[in-house]
Amino acid sequence: MHSDLSLQHDISLRPFNTFGIDARARHYVRVTSSEQLRLALADPALAALPRLVLGGGSNLLLTGDFDGLVLHIASTGKEVLAGDTQHVHVRAAAGENWHEFVQWTLAQGLGGLENLALIPGTVGAAPIQNIGAYGLETQDVFHSLTAFDPATGSEVTLDRAACRFAYRDSLFKQEDGRHLIVTSVTFALPRAWQPNLRYAELAAAVAEQGIAAPTARQVADTVIAVRRRKLPDPREIGNAGSFFKNPVVSAAQCAQLLERWPALVHHRQADGSEKLAAGWLIDQCGWKGRSLGAAGVYEKQALVLVNRGGATGEDVQRLARAIQDDVEARYGVRLEPEPVFV
Ligand SMILES: Cc1cc2nc3c(=O)[nH]c(=O)nc-3n(C[C@H](O)[C@H](O)[C@H](O)COP(=O)(O)OP(=O)(O)OC[C@H]3O[C@@H](n4cnc5c(N)ncnc54)[C@H](O)[C@@H]3O)c2cc1C
Questions:
Q1: pLDDT-derived band of residue 291, with 50, 70 and 90 as boundaries?
Q2: 298 alpha-carbon distance from chain centroid
Q3: Where in 94-180 does DSSP place strands (E)?
Q4: Is the CB of 83 within 6 Å of ligand 1?
Q5: Phi, psi at residue 262, to the nearest 5°?
Q6: How far apart, in whole angstroms, are the C-alpha atoms of residue 123 and residue 184?
Q7: Does the keyword Repressor apply (predicted)?
């Protein structure tokens, strides 16, 4: 193996996942550049192992020890590119911390990413589930990305259409894209910036401060304050953010549910379907604040499952299944987990 790579064996992944699950990895390597990534996968012994590409570990549930190679993406670098008449392009390496990158764009005087402030994890993982919050998704500000294809040993550039973004979904979660390793992402930020206050709670939080025409910085600060109020800090209590996706149902199914439960929280989608608030469904089933063993449901937000101390991946899965079964029995809707199970 190449001397530039420091391969470690049988290590705990506890510091590398925000749930704080103490699973172990058979092999682990931290790669700080595309060149190191290429080198690691040019080694036939390493390339043959089952692989887990790891960013900030904030959207993972480790269900047990990982008997393969963990490739920890820690590449850095960010730059402002020329762009076009409408947009400034900014590019960052996959290993950059997402929130720090958002802050950096704001410091450059560039708005566009502020609604996604304080989401944990890395830039490289943002396109994987098309991260979204407060009325904005990655795809809305995405230009292109580069990814390493271990099958060919070369890098490819993919535009927005090629990434097949959807709600918490992309090419990289599908069979034909799962092997790709994102190495950098380029965003297209509007030259003529306007605040995006489509999300009612964000608009209300801005208005509450008496701000009529917020700057991008003020929107970011508001998003940060709202998130801090609602979500547990993984450094204090292990979690992976929202544990379930909001289920999307037909208008007819939503209408039927509303007949029985008029208070059902739902949001109409552009295609006429309805997105139900998974947190509301879970809360109505009485799960908020409850625990099963060392895994629990966060007191302030029923969509977030937490590690109350020493939880295993199996504990979290058991709790998740119990919630899924209850919600399905009552509302006929099966909740789908958002984190990736490893
Ligand atoms: C408190 C909290 C709040 C959150 N809030 C939100 C939110 O508002 N909206 C939202 O969408 N998400 C949210 N999340 C989930 C999470 O932060 C995002 O999904 C984030 O993008 C995950 O980044 P990561 O680097 O930690 O990815 P990881 O957890 O390390 O990996 C997640 C998946 O992406 C893959 N992956 C990671 N990096 C790469 C790469 N370079 N190339 C290819 N595949 C890769 C991994 O293999 C894995 O399948 C939240 C999580 C927490 C803990």
A1: very high
A2: 18
A3: 132-133, 136-137, 142-149, 154-159
A4: no
A5: -60, -20
A6: 8
A7: no
